[in-house]
Amino acid sequence: MGEFELIARHFTRPVPPGGGVALGVGDDCALLAPAPGMQLAVSSDMLVEGRHFLATVDPAALGHKALAVNLSDLAAAGAKPLAFTLALALPSVDDAWLAGFARGLFALADAHGCTLAGGDTTRGPLTICVTVFGEVPAGGALLRSGARAGDDLWVSGTLGDARLALEVFRGTLAVPAEVFAAARARMERPTPRVALGQALRGIATSAIDVSDGLAGDLGHVLRAGGVGATLEADAAAARVAARGAPGMEAFDAAAWRSLALAGGDDYELAFTAPAAARAAVEAAGHAAGTPVTRIGRIEAEPGLRIVDAQGAPVTQRFASFDHFSATE
Ligand code: ADP
Ligand code: MG
């Protein structure tokens, strides 16, 4: 099967009318048509075999994840997905693998009304680069830079699940089979918080999607806003999905904090909003079907201060993910 047959078979579908794509796969350029008054939000993320995933991963899960991590960036901007492009380097043409990959990719794309509008296909070490295009009212995008002293600090969904699964794969942790299955699903098929991001427009003062660990990603928001924060470690640690599961009694407070604050691959939204907007944030979470949890407060003094439930400083270091540092 040649390049063009491969594209025609696996990556060419009719373009739905009214979805912001005027011309899709097949010409030199795709044509996007965002609605009047909207800005285009654009983001790229690359997945490289060996670095971001293992060769043995289910191709459908990989198709899902390649798009999900990009949709997560649109979510953090409060943008509505329109279209994406797919640049693929493939070591060989494996029809069954491509069919699985396309199935996972298009299932998520269809769930978000996001049309594959073009791409590139070449031979090479397995690499997947997706670029997404979304639309957001001009001037209305959520940015990293808007946090103000006095704002609440919030996070969506659950934290640390993907890292838990990764450590089990690495052999540094052992957990019950059901806990591993749930954590693995979160790692391989993350849920981009697209509806929540849009619901937070006009409410959140800043937002970022958590891909490298909450504490580190929060640092970007604090530096961009010229502010600092106090983060309640145990409020974040309570959001690890496996918390309270049978067979997890050996995990101490430091372990849960590490997973939540330095986990990585969460694809949740961390965001700030004025204290007066608490009810509006809760309503946005409810409307989006995504739980939201208040985990701290923005302050004028720069830096991230991590405290326990009593407000005492947590001295554990999170930047290097100490708890599992043997593997880092
Ligand atoms: P060009 O020669 O302009 O680079 P290509 O021959 O690479 O064009 O691609 C032909 C058409 O197929 C283009 O419209 C391109 O966007 C699309 N395309 C190529 N690879 C993919 C892919 N993996 N997924 C979706 N569309 C693709
Ligand atoms: Mg090309």
Overview of this protein structure:
It contains 10 helices and 12 strands. The protein has a 6-stranded mixed beta sheet, sandwiched between helices. By secondary structure, it is an alpha+beta fold. 34% of the residues lie in helices and 25% in strands. Helix 4 crosses helix 5 (177-188). It folds into 2 domains: 3-137, PurM-like, N-terminal domain (60s Ribosomal Protein L30, Chain: A, 2-Layer Sandwich); 144-307, PurM-like C-terminal domain (Phosphoribosyl-aminoimidazole Synthetase, Chain A, domain 2, Alpha-Beta Complex). It binds adenosine-5'-diphosphate and magnesium ion.
What is the fold's blueprint, element by element?
Elements: H1 3-10, E1 21-23, E2 31-32, E3 38-48, H2 59-77, E4 80-90, H3 95-111, E5 115-123, E6 127-137, E7 152-156, H4 161-170, H5 177-188, H6 194-199, E8 206-210, H7 214-225, E9 228-232, H8 233-237, H9 253-262, E10 268-273, H10 278-288, E11 292-299, E12 303-307
Parallel strand pairs: 4-5, 9-12
Antiparallel strand pairs: 1-2, 3-6, 4-6, 7-10, 7-11, 8-10, 9-11
Helix pairs in contact: 2-3, 4-5
Adenosine-5'-diphosphate binds near residues 26 and 119.
